[in-house]
Amino acid sequence: MTQTRSGRHSYRPVAYWRGEQVIQEVEEQDDMFNRAAGFVMPKIKEVVRVPLEGPHPRSAASRGRSSRPKPKKVEPEEEQQLEEWEVSPGVVEGEIVLWEPEHEEHPPADDEAVQVTDERIAISASAIQTSDIRDATFRFAKTLTMPFMGAGVVDLPPGGEKRPKNSRKMHMVFFVHTGKVMVTINEAQFRISAGGMWFVPRGNYYSITNDYDNPSRVFFCQACELSASFADMTQQSVA
């Protein structure tokens, strides 16, 4: 607290919320107009200040350490126990109803007589065995072959490539199971990671390239419209 030339006291603002305060006392002053009586005026005796708290000193153990939170430890995924059929024989054969054209408008009832046959309806991971393709740098396995639809997987090692090919009458769907690949469809080109899908419309050229350091597995499915001619019902292979 300082005193100005005019006798007034000057001090910086008081932070009452922190406990600072101004202590005053009364002092009798002479009245120049009435010498027989004086008057009382408050006088600042003291300004109580509360010192600011400085930053807490860091312990020796914490000096030099980053304030960033520690990354959470990623627990390894628990290996799932395989079903008996997945180990051997690796496929499931089941009785299915043979499709008839009239089933489109009138699906058969539960008690209606229908033609049935046995077909493979599931395949385990270990039973999907890819094979080398002649003059190619990828491996291939066909898991479903129908006149109007097909499915399978393509394995591309690092540097592997499925050279440009026309999809012809097939509309194709691809799903990246593992790894990452570069895809070209007609004039469009992009890279896609595991979990992504892409589509090749009928009559378009496409290619797949794995120019990464890790292998990649891609699932594909393709379908076409049926024509009256049996020759046109022959499925176009992706390989």
From TrEMBL:
Residues 48-87 are annotated as: Disordered. It is found in: Nucleus. Component of the kinetochore, a multiprotein complex that assembles on centromeric DNA and attaches chromosomes to spindle microtubules, mediating chromosome segregation and sister chromatid segregation during meiosis and mitosis. Component of the inner kinetochore constitutive centromere-associated network (CCAN), which serves as a structural platform for outer kinetochore assembly. Pfam families: CENP-C_C (PF11699). PANTHER family: CENTROMERE PROTEIN C (PTHR16684). Belongs to the CENP-C/MIF2 family. One of its GO terms (biological process) is kinetochore assembly. GO terms for cellular component: kinetochore; nucleus. Residues 138-222 form the Mif2/CENP-C cupin domain. Residues 76-86 have a biased composition (Acidic residues). GO terms for molecular function: centromeric DNA binding. Transmembrane segments: none annotated. Gene3D superfamilies: Jelly Rolls. This is CENP-C homolog. Its main location: nucleus. InterPro entries: CENP-C/Mif2/cnp3, Mif2/CENP-C_cupin, RmlC-like_jellyroll, RmlC_Cupin_sf. The lineage of its organism: Eukaryota, Fungi, Dikarya, Ascomycota, Pezizomycotina. Keywords: DNA-binding, Nucleus.
